[in-house]
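#random but structural
TW: two for the price of one
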Amino acid sequence: MTTMLKSNLIGSANLSPHGFEEPKFLDRRARADNRGPDRACRGTTAWNRWGSLTLRPIESMMADLFLQHLERLDDASRLSRFGMVADDAFLRTHTERAIGERCLSIGCFEGGDLRGVAELHDLGPGRWQILELALSVEPPFQSQGIGKALARRAVTTARELDAGEIHTCFNVANHRMKAIAQGLPMTLDYDWPFVTGTQVLRRTRG
C-alpha cells in the first residue's frame, strides 16, 4: 500500500496512532486482542506474527534507514508511491527531501528496521499550513493496518502543527489507500487516473 505525492508526479517513543505516549503500546495491544496499533484493524493477527512494532518520528540521522526502506519497495509499490518505477538515484534524492526542513516523516519500526513511512510535505504558502500526505509500506507488511495507523498519526501531527488542510494523491486502482483516506475521513475528488483526498483541519486560524 503506497501513495504518491502529487508534487512528485512529472520524538522517540512508542506512540499510538492517536498521538499519545503509551509504552509498549503496539506489543501489548497485539498480545491482548491481535489488533495491532489501531483498534480499527479488526481481526488481524499479523502484528503478533511480525513481533513488536513502534511508531515514532524519523530523524535526520535515520537517512540510511529511510533509503533502505524505499529500496525494499517492489516495482508495483514504487509505481504507486512515485507514479513511476523509481530508480535508486531517484530514491536517494527523495530521501534527502523527506528528511529535510519542509517534511515531517513518521516511521513504523520493527526493531532497527523501518517498515512503513508517513510523510507530511509542507506545500506552503504559510509554514505547515497545507500539507500533503504520502504513505509507503513494504510489501510483506501490507494489509496489516500499518498504513492506517501511520495515516492517523500523521493527521494528529498535522493538527499539532495547527495545519489548515491535509491532502493526498493516489491512483484510482489503489483501493487500500482509498479506504484509508475515507476513514480519516477525507473528501475524495476523482481526476482519472488519480484521486485527490482532502481533509480540512480548521476553517480559520486560531
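TW: number two ↓
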Amino acid sequence: MTVMFYLAETGDSNLTPGLLYWANVENWVNVRATAMSAVDLRKTAIRALGRNGHITDKVASTLRRELQSTNDEVSIVTIAACAELGVCMEEALTKIREKRAATPWQRPEAAQYCDLVEPILRWRADTNSSVAAHVIRENLSIGRAEQRRSTTAELIGRAGAEARQFIGDLAVMARDPDRNLQLIAVRALRRIDAKEAERILRSER
C-alpha cells in the first residue's frame, strides 16, 4: 500500500478509479505477511486520493461519506484529503466543529492537526477570507514549529494558482536555513507559479 501512496504523487488521473475502489472497500482478506486491515487500506487509499489531486463526483462523494466515519483515523485522513483537493470544505469544517464540541479526538495530535488545517479549509472555501489568510501566514512564518510551517506550505501549494497571495511568505521560507523547509517551499511555489519559483531560485544562486 506504500506503493499506492507514492504512485499517487505522480498525479496520474488513471489511478483514480483504482484508488476509489480501495477507498470504498468494506471487506478485505489480507494474504500478506504484513498486517493490514480493511480500515488501514481505506485510509491509505483516501490519503492517496488527496495526494493524486484529481477531483471527480465519485471522489467528492467518497470523501463526503468518509467524513461521517466514527473512526478517528479515517476522519483525519479524509479531512486532509479535503484540504488537499479543495472539496467538501464545509463538511470537513463541520466535522472538526463536531469533534471539538462533542466527542474529542482520541489522540491529541489529531486535534492539533485539525487546528492547523482548519484555516486552510476556511480559506479554500472562501479565498477572500482575510482572517483565514492571516492565520495561514502566521503558520508559515519564522518562529513557528517546523512541522506547522511545512504542513501549511504543502497544503497551500496544493491549491495551485489560487494561492498566489502566499508567494511572498513561501519565498521567505525558500530562503530558510533549514534545507527541508526550503525544498517544501520551492515545491509549493512551483505548484502555484512555476516561473516565480524559478525566479526565486535564480536569485539565490
